[in-house]
């Protein structure tokens, strides 16, 4: 299977190197399956980080139906967007799609797909800082927020940077199976293979765009001690304020309650443990800081709409649950 990497001027190194390394490791671990090609509008490009990449192939006239075409992310400048509108490039991408290729937009590579009309009436995503710009540029696109990657038919898009690795691991899983994806992730020292519906920003980093030193201290403590039994009164005593004042200040700076913030931290930890597939639901609840398995199930179902056992079954050898109930 051919894997083509389209490199445009000011390409970001990690948006290229992450997917390339994942595919290369998959070949080394499980035999040659992907044939890598690096293509562009000219024989060389300069990366935004300063490296020059040469000996690029030209855009092929015909493409096999099972080809993967990666459109690597680049610095989003007016000059680069003008290149993305190059009629030859636009027609080539449309033709590749019509010939049955799977198109993969990494980070700002999604904008290039948009210029070719390939995002119209499709779900897609990009880096969280550029999602509004993507929606403004391509109003017919359905831009999904808080997603690592999105798959809509034969067009896949990702948040970029390390999200490109997650999307490539997903493709390896889809094309070569779970063992190939797991082995490749382990070789890349990716301890947790993120799914498409994972959030781009960790719960530990969310709601931090405020200037309250006290609330940052509280959040730091919650990030370290979320597995412990915590109470608002205990937090207030630790930080030498009244419980009422702490709750008011926390909501004013983060937009939510201490309880909901703590629950989000615990659910994120539970998500990691369920994907590891090594623990029962009961042990996941305990290791994540929930006071009971029932409380964990209620919190999980309230956020995700499905029982935690569904995710556990996906990541347990043989697809079986390790608990008797959902």
Automatic annotation (TrEMBL):
Residue intervals of the HTH araC/xylS-type domain: 212-314
GO MF term (any one): sequence-specific DNA binding
Claim: Transcription is one of the keywords in the record: yes
Keywords tagged on the record: Transcription, Transcription regulation
Spans annotated as Disordered: 302-326
SUPFAM superfamilies documented for this protein: Class I glutamine amidotransferase-like (SSF52317), Homeodomain-like (SSF46689)
Keyword Transcription regulation (UniProt): yes
UniProt protein name: AraC family transcriptional regulator
Native source organism of the sequence: Tamilnaduibacter salinus
Phylogenetic classification of the source organism: Bacteria, Pseudomonadati, Pseudomonadota, Gammaproteobacteria, Pseudomonadales
């Amino acid at each position: 299977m051919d894997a083509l990497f389209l490199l445009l001027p000011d390409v970001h190194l990690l948006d290229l190197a992450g997917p390339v390394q994942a595919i290369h490791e998959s070949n080394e671990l499980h035999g040659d399956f992907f044939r890598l090609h690096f293509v562009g509008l000219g024989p060389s490009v300069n990366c935004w980080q300063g490296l020059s990449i040469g000996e690029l192939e030209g855009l092929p006239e015909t493409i096999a139906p099972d080809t993967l075409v990666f459109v690597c992310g680049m610095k989003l400048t007016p000059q680069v967007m003008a290149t993305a509108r190059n009629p030859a490039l636009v027609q080539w991408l449309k033709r590749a799609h019509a010939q049955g290729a799977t198109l993969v937009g990494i980070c700002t590579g999604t904008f290039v797909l948009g210029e070719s009309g390939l995002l119209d009436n499709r779900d897609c995503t990009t880096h969280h800082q550029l999602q509004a710009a993507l929606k403004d540029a391509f109003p017919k696109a359905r831009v999904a927020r808080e997603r690592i990657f999105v798959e809509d038919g034969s067009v896949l898009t990702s948040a970029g940077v390390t999200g490109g690795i997650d999307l490539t691991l997903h493709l390896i899983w889809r094309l070569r199976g779970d063992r190939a994806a797991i082995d490749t992730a382990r070789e890349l020292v990716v301890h947790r293979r993120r799914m498409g519906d994972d959030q781009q920003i960790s719960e530990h980093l969310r709601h931090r765009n405020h200037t309250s030193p006290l609330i940052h201290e509280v959040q730091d403590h919650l990030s370290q001690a979320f597995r412990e039994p915590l109470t608002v009164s205990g937090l207030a005593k630790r930080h030498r304020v009244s419980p009422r004042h702490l709750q008011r200040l926390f909501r004013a700076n983060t937009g939510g309650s201490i309880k909901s913030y703590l629950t989000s931290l615990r659910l994120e930890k539970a998500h990691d443990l369920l994907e590891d597939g090594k623990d029962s639901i009961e042990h996941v609840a305990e290791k994540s800081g929930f006071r009971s398995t029932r409380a964990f199930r209620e919190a999980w179902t309230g956020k995700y709409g499905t029982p935690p056992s569904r995710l556990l079954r996906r990541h347990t050898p043989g697809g079986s649950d390790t608990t008797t109930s959902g």
